[in-house]
Design goal:
Blueprint: H1 3-41, E1 62-63, E2 70-76, H2 81-99, E3 104-110, H3 116-129, H4 134-143, H5 155-164, H6 170-178, H7 183-196, E4 203-206, E5 209-212, H8 217-228
Parallel strand pairs: 2-3
Antiparallel strand pairs: 1-3, 2-4, 4-5
Length: 229
């Protein structure tokens, strides 16, 4: 398939799914919120309760042990400035405080809502993951992101970010980026986001409790601490 055709299809997919997400957000997201608050506060709640967690032991797009008592699922877009803010300011502290001590697992989900470049970036992240450099690529992309507006993530920029992240086989990375092979996995994440009504980025689900936006660190700490009780 020619690159122009692939890009047109990516734009169409992102546009249609964006409309679907916006239609579902009010009902589904607040429905999840009410249910999850009850489950976390209930005496019968288990120490590990996140219905969105996949808990694949060898998931290259996850940090932390599969038996961590708290799982944070993040729905994110590489072109989102607020996602970049979370990656730079908050995530490292959560990793140091909770992931490295076995208390938290973080699982990444792609939610590309800012057009074709977002879709390509999601594929690029997965291409890096196939070579064991997902989180390195993820952090490099967000480190270069502007404080305002959406990052320009052309294929050339994504290749440079992969090089900086230490992706070993750049030819293999480029081939994955040019094909549609990784697109179904991205679409699966989008469908999962639609199911909970996540209409913006970033959105977090922490043991089934939703947190919307790049909130201050103390918000995440409060939810994580509550989820451990």
């Amino acid at each position: 398939m020619r690159r122009s055709e692939t890009r047109q299809r990516d734009i169409w997919i992102a546009g249609i799914l964006g409309v679907v997400i916006l239609v579902l957000v009010t009902y589904l997201f607040f429905d999840l919120s009410s249910k999850s608050t009850a489950s976390i506060n209930s005496p019968a709640a288990t120490s590990h309760h996140n219905s969105m967690a996949r808990l694949h032991a060898n998931d290259p797009m996850a940090l932390g042990p599969v038996d961590a008592p708290v799982v944070l699922v993040i729905y994110s877009d590489y072109r989102c400035p607020f996602c970049a803010k979370f990656s730079r300011d908050t995530e490292p502290q959560l990793v140091e405080r909770y992931v490295n001590t076995g208390k938290l697992r973080i699982e990444w989900r792609d939610l590309p809502i800012f057009g074709a470049q977002s879709v390509q970036a999601a594929k690029a992240g997965r291409a890096a993951a196939e070579q064991g450099r997902f989180w390195e690529f993820n952090r490099v992309v967000f480190r270069h992101a502007p404080d305002r507006g959406h990052a320009e993530l052309t294929d050339e920029v994504l290749l440079e970010r992969a090089r900086e992240a230490g992706v070993p086989d750049l030819a293999r990375f480029q081939a994955a980026l040019a094909s549609d092979r990784l697109l179904p996995a991205v679409q699966q994440d989008i469908q999962e986001a639609v199911a909970i009504g996540a209409a913006s980025t970033p959105v977090f689900v922490i043991n089934d409790k939703p947190v919307v936006g790049a909130q201050p660190l103390d918000v995440f700490v409060s939810v994580i601490e509550q989820a451990q009780r």
